[in-house]
Every structure is written in structure tokens, then in C-alpha cells.
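## retry 2 of 3
previous attempt timed out at serialization; input unchanged, resubmitting
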Amino acid sequence: MDKILEKVPLGEKIGYSLGDAAANLVFQMMMIYQLKFYTDVFGLEGAVAGTVLLVARIVDAFVDPTAGILSDKTQTKWGKFRPWVIWTALPFMVFYVLAFYNPGIENKGLVAIYAGISYVLLMSLYSFNNTPYSSLGGVMTADIKERTSITSIRFVAATVAQFVVQGLTLPLVHKFGRGSGADDAQGWLTTITIFALVGFVFLIIAGFSAKERIAPPASQKMDIKNDIKGLFADVSWRSMFVLTLFVFITLAMWGSAMCYYFQHYVDLQSLGLFLDKLGLVKDEGAVLGVGMQILDSFSLLATRATDGTISPLEAYSIGLSVFNMAGAIVQLIGVMTLSEFLANRYGKKSTFIVCLALTALFTAAFILPSKDDIGLIFILGILKSLAYAPTVPLLWAMIADVADHMEYVSHRRATGLCFSGVVFALKAGLGVGGAIAGVILSAFGYVNDIQITQSAESLLGIRLASSVVPGICFGIGVVALFFYPISKALNEKMQAELVKRRAEE
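## retry succeeded, writing output
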């Protein structure tokens, strides 16, 4: 059997998947907590913080294609993409730590400069690591089902990392802090350092695990100008670029806004009572069982004082963490049980359209709950996660199909360049989504002081950034998918033709 169609060993799939777990230890943190870190720890205004996130996108316009071109040009006995995953692992994680390090600068202008430089360097290393990593997944096999299987396992690992970051970050920050609250700088630094160490190990394992089985035609010469021209001319790539851009604009905007939504809009007393019903509240001085001790070691138990009250800070940090963990668990189940099944039965495109449309609907519905309707807020979060779950692995599997489509049409393969463009869209979405959230907060009068009760106008801005606006952005992604030409039938025809061509080389 041709090596490009052979079964990929399970161990190789799992090893490769750890690279995305590492990437998500970074990405989820940037998506959910970067804006809040800038406003509440660095003390930057929302619009200024948003500008910092946008500045990096200008640099990305040059860095991302460079990463793709260089990885395509790389020739080693280990392949084109694997070496980059290994080479960049350490600096990537070092700059991850620096992006969440508070140097204690008092001047807000200098703080903004430090934030901008550290963020740009982190995102640049993200490109030089994640573009080759993502490209690697596109050359491990040409088999359609195996490719979907690889991406499904990959995103199981990614979802586990999402669970850890979204669920444990605030409790760990609180645990490792010096008693000043969930925004304590030392707590952030210690937490990020732990994530960075784990991420480094995972990237090294991924780089040594995966094998590259698909290579450009032996006769193909490097022609950057024509490859870039072919990239922009390919309607499937343009569709995936727009889809990726708006999906990650939405994820970044919604993820950032939900931190403010829980802290300022949700009634924290009601949230505390909800946690009590879930068994996540302990009495002060109570003797705990083993299970409760484990939860308490991660600061996932709120403490009921002798007067019967629960700290609003604990209610917020634990409540948001439980909300995120519930969503991550549901998403994990959806990825494992629905993605591959639906894609193989109905095709990637049809599955993505339906699931993303439902995700847009459930996201927009977050405008509906009252501040004390905690149950409805959690139900909407679970429904949104379940609807979105099948799309998670399909995005990168579809981009791999785009690289094949470009080769099918032009007889040239430029996997790294193809993936670099989409990685740029991902990072642009990350920056633009965070910036939009920051601008909305500033426009509606958000005050970056956890002790201040936000105005009704400010709360409206927080709610809009958490519901209607991201729902519309998801809807734009749905529209982009209708222009994606690679149906299940075309994909099967395309793969058969490419296998024939490669056999004749």
C-alpha cells in the first residue's frame, strides 16, 4: 500500500496531538484572559489593550507567510515541518511567560509598550511553531478518514488543554497569589510558568512522534510568486481564510467578554448559591473528604463564612471556572462522538454549516438571561459547546483538503504557505476579537476597577460583547462556508487523482 494512504499508528496520532495541547495552553490563555490581564493587572484602558492586540496583527502580515515559506523551503532528513516544531518549542514558551509577566512599571505608556513588544514576540514564535505544526498534520496521510481521525484525536488533546486553562487558571492564580485576589501578578506568573513547562515537553514529544508522508512533486521548483498567486486564486482557500478569521474573532471576543460578564453582570450571590447546590462550597473549618480535598487543592471550593456568606471573588473565579469546565467537557464528548461520525456521513462542509449556525444562535441567546438566572446561563453554555464541538477538528482537516485542492488544480504543493495564511487568519481573529471586546467595553464606559459597580450602560456593553455581536460574527463564518467548493464527492475524486499522479512520479 502506498505510504501516503497507510494507516497512521495510534501512538503517532496521540504524540502529534500533544502539540495542539501545548498550543492551546497558550491560545486559550490569550483568547480568554489576555484582555482581562491587560485591563485588570496592567491597568490599561480597554481601547488601549485592544490596540496592543491589533498591533501584533500588522507584524503577523509579514511573519506568518515567512513562516510558511521557510518551512516549505526546509529540507532535512526529518522532513520540512517537524524540525520547526522542535526548534521553536523553548523560545515559544519563554515568550509565553514574558507576555504574562508584570515588570512593575508604573507609567502606563511604558506598560503598553512592554505589553505590545512581549505580545508581538509571543505571536511571532506562535507562527514559527504552529504553522509548521499544523502543516505537519496535512502531510501525515492522504487518506480522508485517517486525516479526520488525526484531527479528531488532536482536538481531544486540545480540548483537554482548554479544560485546564479555562477551568483552572483563575483558581490557580488565586492559589499561587499572595492573598490580593485573582488578579495578583505573582499568581499569574506562577500559573503561566507551569503551563509553559508542560507545553514545552508536549511540543518536543509531538515533534519526534509524527512522520511526514506527503511531499511536493519531485520535479517542483520553488516559485514563491506563483505559489502566493495560486493561494489567493483558490476559492477554497479564500473561503477558509474568511471562515477562520470570523470564527476566531468570535471566540476571542466571546471568551474575553465572558470574564467581565461573570464578574460584573452575573449576580455573584446567586452564583454562590448555585455553586452550593453543586456541592462546591465548604464550611469554614470543616473536615473534608478525599474528593473535596482534591477540589480544594485546586481552589475549586468556595468557603462559606460563619455568617453564611460566600466571598464574591470566590464565587466569580470558581463560577466562571465551572462554567468553562462544563463547556469543555461537553465539547470533548462532542469531538469524540460526533465529529468523525458526522463528517464521514454528511461531509465536512455540511456538518460545519449546520453546527456553526446552531453555535451562532446559542451564542446570541446569552443576551436573554437575567443576572440571577444562573441555570439558564449554564444551559446555554452547554448547548453552545455541544453545537460547536463537531466543527473543532474539521477546520484543520478542511485546510489540509485545501492544500490538496491547490495541488489538484495547479500541480504544485505549498502546504506551509497554505497553512500560514490560515494561521494568520486565526491570529488576526484573536487580536481583532479581543480588540473589539476592548473597544466595546470602553465605548460603554467600563471602569477597570473590580471594586466599582459598573453602570447600566457598561453592563449592556458587556452583555452585547458576550452575545449578539459574537453571534453575528459566527453567522458571517456560516456565509463563508457556502463558497467552499470541496464537497465530499469532490474530495474523494480529488484524492484519487492525486494518488494516481504521485504514483506516476
